[in-house]
Amino acid sequence: MQSLDRASGVAREKAILVRVVLQSESLNEQPLAELTGLAETAGAKIVGEMTQRRETPDMTTYLGRGKVGELKALAANLDADVAIFDNDLNPAQIRNLEQALGIKVLDRTELILDIFATNARSSESRLAVELAQLEYSLPRLKRMWTHLSRIKAGIGMRGPGEKQLEVDRRLVEKRIHDLREELGGIERRKERLVASRHDRLTVSLVGYTNAGKSTLMNTLTGAGVLAADKLFATLDTRTRRWQLDNWGPVLLSDTVGFIRDLPHGLVHSFKATLEEARQADLLLHVADASNPEVFDQISAVYKVLQELHIEEKDTVLVLNKIDRVHDRSDLARIFARYPNAVSISASSGEGLRNLQHAVSEALSRSFADLDIEASASDGRLFAFLAAHGEILERSYTEDDRVIIHCRLPQRHLGGIRQEGVTIQPHQNLVPAETTEFLGLIAGDDAIEEVA
Ligand SMILES: Nc1nc2c(ncn2[C@@H]2O[C@H](COP(=O)(O)OP(=O)(O)OP(=O)(O)O)[C@@H](O)[C@H]2O)c(=O)[nH]1
Ligand SMILES: [Mg+2]
After folding, report:
1. From the CB of 347, is ligand 1 less than 6 Å away?
2. Angstrom distance (rounded) from CA 421 to CA 121
3. Best of 210, 320, 345, 355 to mutate for ligand 1, by most ligand atoms within 8 A of CB?
4. What's the CA-to-centroid distance between 92 and ligand 2, angstroms?
5. pLDDT at position 246
6. Do 313 and 406 belong to one domain?
7. Burial class (CB in 10 A: 0-12, 13-18, 19+), 64
8. How many domains does the chain have?
9. From the record, what ranges are coiled-coil (predicted)?
10. Tens digits of residue pLDDT in 32-54
11. Is the CB of 50 under 6 A from ligand 1?
12. CA distance 41 to 160
């Protein structure tokens, strides 16, 4: 049934992609483009496609009855192993479809979970995926029992969650409980760790999967992180120093991408991984300007930010891949809606100067760049600046005074106004290359140096 992929020598499952477009949804020219990307990333060989417009889903099979018959014939003709639905199906619908079609049926959530399971590398992301898979399969355990003979391998069945399918519900519930505890612990540790880097301004890349976050990270910091034309290539967070023109060094984090209708459990279990974004001083929302669905993708990202309660954070919208936008009116349409966006190409480097400029501007809005003169023995002031701001330079004068060049969130300005302390806007910006961080503070070792 399965074809042998000559290049990899791995058997690839032959898949038919199916999407039911409901009345409420808008239909674009390529309704199966994203599902194709997901299925290919999961390793499927796409042999057929089917879409149907319906007012509402069919209760028993989601797809209409007549279409189910058509799909069955198509599957037999094409010798397909699996039908992958772009919709989220309930357990009964999957069971009914599998019975009617005689092949494995996967829905969108299962497909996404499968990709996460395949791509998870760190122990943290493995635990997060296992939790999301188990939470997804718990209400479906019955289906696992009755179909175990037929559905036992391949896409949708991989990853750490897989070994649990043969144990009973109670064991699954216990494992879910333990995983939640373990991830909760990781989340709290991560929260403290990221918070301990408060002396560094942090900028976090967020955005739709495949928008080019990792490529941008590599271009800006030479990080050498994996960037690939695969969905969810990145599942962990990497943080590197980024030397920002006219500003100095900040920390830049790359993290897992988002997708529309991201399974709810996944957002929750990846909370620890998203901690950098949650605590960032500024978000760079990277969008793929060359994708026809860019508006929907921007909204989908916004929804996930809402779920993480960080939608109010200062954000710069970055329109990436402009080297692939051939019709300039497409770009104009995006700018009409998002006039403050910055357009770049992470791969060619076009627009990066503007991006640096926009980021410095955005940071300056929230941070005061100051020269503070005080008595060199003012321990309270030092402690306050170290706790809330970022000390960039210190120089001592002969009369036992110190001049501190620092950045402080505007809201903390009140905390340093006292007698004997002179505050003025920072005068001569030292060229970025020669700006040195002083007073390295805990949490530094957590900044990953990528080999
Ligand atoms: N033409 C073009 N391709 C780009 C650009 N930026 C990224 N890409 C390509 O887009 C694909 C995805 O890039 P990544 O950097 O892995 O995207 P990502 O946002 O990190 O994706 P995930 O980690 O999967 O969420 C890769 O094939 C990149 O080479 C760009 O500016 N222009
Ligand atoms: Mg990435």
Report:
1. yes
2. 50
3. 210
4. 35
5. 78
6. no
7. middle
8. 4
9. 162-196
10. 999 999 999 999 999 999 999 99
11. no
12. 18
Give the residue, out of 34, 208, 214, with the most ligand 1 atoms within 8 A of its beta carbon, to mutate for a pocket test. Answer: 214
Ligand nearest to the CA of 209: 1
Give the count of beta carbons closer than 10 Å to the beta carbon of residue 271: 18
Amino acid 53 reads: R
Whether 96 is in the pocket of ligand 1, judged by its Cβ within 6 Å, is no
Examine the domain organization and report whether 238 and 374 are in the same domain.
no
Q: Is 229 in the pocket of ligand 1 (CB under 6 A)?
A: yes
For the annotated binding site, the residues are 207-214, 232-236, 254-257, 320-323
pLDDT tens for residues 122-136? Answer: 888 899 999 998 888
pLDDT for residue 409: 83
**C-alpha to C-alpha distance for 358 and 340, rounded to whole angstroms:** 9
Model confidence pLDDT, tens digit, residues 172-188: 888 999 999 999 999 89
Q: Are residues 173 and 212 in the same domain?
A: no
184 and 229, same domain (yes or no): no
Ion ligand 2, residues whose Cβ is below 5 A away: 213-214, 233-234
pLDDT band at 7 (very low <50, low <70, confident <90, very high): very low
Q: Of 73, 60, 67, 72, which is closest to residue 21 (Cα–Cα)?
A: 67
Burial class (CB in 10 A: 0-12, 13-18, 19+), 334: buried
Say yes or no: CB of residue 211 within 6 Å of ligand 1: yes
Asked if the structure places residue 165 within a domain, the reply is yes
- Which pLDDT does position 142 carry in this prediction? 53
